[in-house]
Amino acid sequence: MSAPRSLASARALAEAMLGAALGAAEIVNRIYHEADRGVTFKVGDDPVTRADHEANAFLLDALGPAERAALDALLDKLLVRARQLARQG
User: Fold this and answer.
1) How far apart are the first and last CA of the chain?
2) Is residue 2 part of a domain?
3) Closest CA to 2 of 61, 82, 74
């Protein structure tokens, strides 16, 4: 799936993204309230928690390859437009 070309495909992508985001939020909220959040640190002392890992795995599973490809295409278009606007001043 490339960037949505119709209202129906855009709506389907939005619904998939919303469902995935809500599921990931539930994971983060559950782990946030646990005593052991499984905090590790990546380069630069940036913390990464078990919630980060589990929510990311959930999102990758919930958004299949087609949805991720469509989202990537949309983000690419947004970046191109943002660069154009930045050049315009």
Assistant:
1) 34
2) no
3) 74
Instruction: Look at residue 84 and tell me if it is in a domain.
Output: yes
Range of the domain at 25: 7-88
pLDDT of residue 36: 87
Total number of domains in the chain: 1
Q: Is residue 1 part of a domain?
A: no
User: Which residues are registered as beta bridge partners of 47?
Assistant: 41
pLDDT tens, position by position, 14-35? 999 999 999 999 999 999 999 8
Task: Judge whether 35 lies within some domain.
Answer: yes
Q: Can you give the three-state secondary structure of the chain, one letter per residue? A: CCCCCCHHHHHHHHHHHHHHHHHHHHHHHHHHCCCCCCCEEECCCEEECHHHHHHHHHHHHHCCHHHHHHHHHHHHHHHHHHHHHHHHC
Question: Is residue 3 very low, low, confident or very high in pLDDT (cuts 50, 70, 90)?
Answer: low
